[in-house]
């Protein structure tokens, strides 16, 4: 029986992968269109460093995907039904290989990778690859369709949990068991939202990262048009919050600092009952709502609901002060001085109060010498009636400064008084 006929008789993509590998006598990996691992041949153990990473993490490394796009290889695969030879990249352990797009109904649904190393494929093998990839494409498509249907059922259960749309916990657990979800008894919710609609593509990037690490961090995720919601599981007290911080840091490293600040991030408190997981979800959304209102400078506003403090009340203060036409005379003087003499007293005062009037820490965060800070504080005291020993005055000024320095419309109210 010919190899093609043999492959056409199997319905399991893992068996099909083994047949391709045995025929070509080379390691084979099949990925979906998102470069996530679908199958790999176990009969050959000569995978290079990059393919080993793909197998371990269940996804092609991001820097390889970026390289393939930069070199135009991904675009070339979209245009052709023929195999494409990709030359080695020695410094990252990427050996020479052949790749062909697996297509179904004219659309690329995945990729078949054959590692060549030093032994190049013959034309006969290339022809075999061209002949069988339409069938592989159909298998990848069917697998994706089945997986999507399962994911939709899982998503439905998780949304019901977060929105408290279930009749009883026992019924919820029963529905979760049917779709093979083990609902956590202790968890917190993390929400990633994009700052503007033009950054929605970043959620796709984030989803790839989540899929790569979801087993390591033991988390479920849900995706909507502008948000990605994570349910972070914990076995011990505080574990989900520690993992949330570690994962957020990892996302920042993976996407880069500039792109990272396209996200607004809210972390709800950790709870130990299913009923309260919705509470964590609402808390994370409140953080996002406040961050969206303020459009804060990077790393200034707490991401965790438990650390929000006065930030929770800024929207209400904004409404009241605007309605009452209230202004701080002290801040008006500092704004006037900053504009006329090009000083930075307003920002200095905010940082000084945020650090509980600790000079050394404030100077460090402002990247100025402590003597420079002392000079600025002296200027502030000479221009205003601020008493740094008065806690109530400091608390009030700090909240007003958060609005002035983070909400453009509020700052312009002050400018209109000065003009």
From TrEMBL:
A Pfam family recorded for this sequence: GGDEF_2
PucR C-terminal helix-turn-helix domain ranges (all copies): 345-402
Domain CdaR GGDEF-like positions: 168-290
TM stretches of this protein: none
Family per similarity comment: Belongs to the CdaR family.
Identification of the protein by name: DNA-binding transcriptional regulator, PucR family
């Amino acid at each position: 029986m010919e190899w093609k006929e043999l492959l056409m008789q199997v319905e399991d993509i893992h068996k099909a992968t083994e047949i391709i590998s045995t025929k070509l006598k080379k390691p084979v990996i099949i990925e979906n269109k998102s470069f996530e691992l679908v199958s790999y041949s176990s009969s050959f153990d000569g995978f290079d460093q990059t393919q080993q990473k793909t197998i371990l993490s269940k996804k092609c490394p991001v820097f390889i995907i970026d390289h393939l796009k930069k070199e135009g290889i991904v675009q070339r695969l979209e245009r052709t039904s023929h195999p494409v030879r990709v030359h080695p990249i020695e410094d990252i352990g990427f050996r020479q290989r052949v790749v062909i797009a697996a297509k179904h109904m004219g659309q690329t649904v995945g990729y078949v990778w054959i590692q060549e190393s030093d032994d190049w494929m013959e034309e006969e093998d290339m022809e075999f690859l061209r002949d069988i990839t339409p069938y592989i494409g159909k298998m990848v498509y069917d697998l994706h369709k089945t997986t999507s249907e399962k994911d939709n059922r899982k998503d439905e259960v998780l949304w019901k949990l977060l929105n408290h749309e279930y009749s009883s916990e026992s019924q919820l657990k029963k529905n979760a068991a049917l779709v093979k979800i083990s609902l956590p008894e202790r968890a917190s919710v993390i929400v990633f939202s994009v700052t503007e609609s033009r950054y929605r593509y970043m959620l796709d990037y984030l989803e790839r990262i989540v899929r790569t690490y979801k087993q390591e961090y033991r988390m479920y995720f849900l995706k909507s048009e502008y948000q990605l919601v994570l349910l972070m599981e914990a076995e011990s007290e505080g574990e989900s919050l520690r993992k949330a911080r570690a994962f957020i840091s990892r996302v920042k490293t993976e996407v880069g600092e500039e792109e990272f600040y396209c996200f607004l991030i809210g972390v709800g408190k950790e709870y130990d009952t299913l009923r309260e997981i919705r509470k964590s979800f609402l808390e994370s959304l409140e953080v996002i709502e406040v961050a969206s209102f303020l459009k804060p400078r990077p790393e200034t506003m707490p991401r965790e609901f438990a650390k929000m403090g006065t930030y929770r009340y800024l929207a209400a203060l904004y409404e009241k002060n605007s309605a009452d036409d209230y202004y701080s005379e002290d801040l008006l003087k500092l704004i006037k001085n900053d504009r006329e003499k090009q000083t930075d007293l307003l920002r200095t005062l905010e940082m000084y109060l945020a650090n509980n009037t600790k000079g050394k820490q404030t100077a460090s965060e402002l990247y100025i010498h402590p003597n420079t800070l002392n000079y600025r504080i002296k200027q502030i005291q000479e221009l205003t009636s601020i008493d740094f020993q008065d806690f109530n005055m400091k608390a009030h000024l700090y909240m007003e400064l958060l609005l002035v320095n983070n909400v453009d419309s509020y700052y312009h109210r002050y400018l209109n008084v000065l003009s």
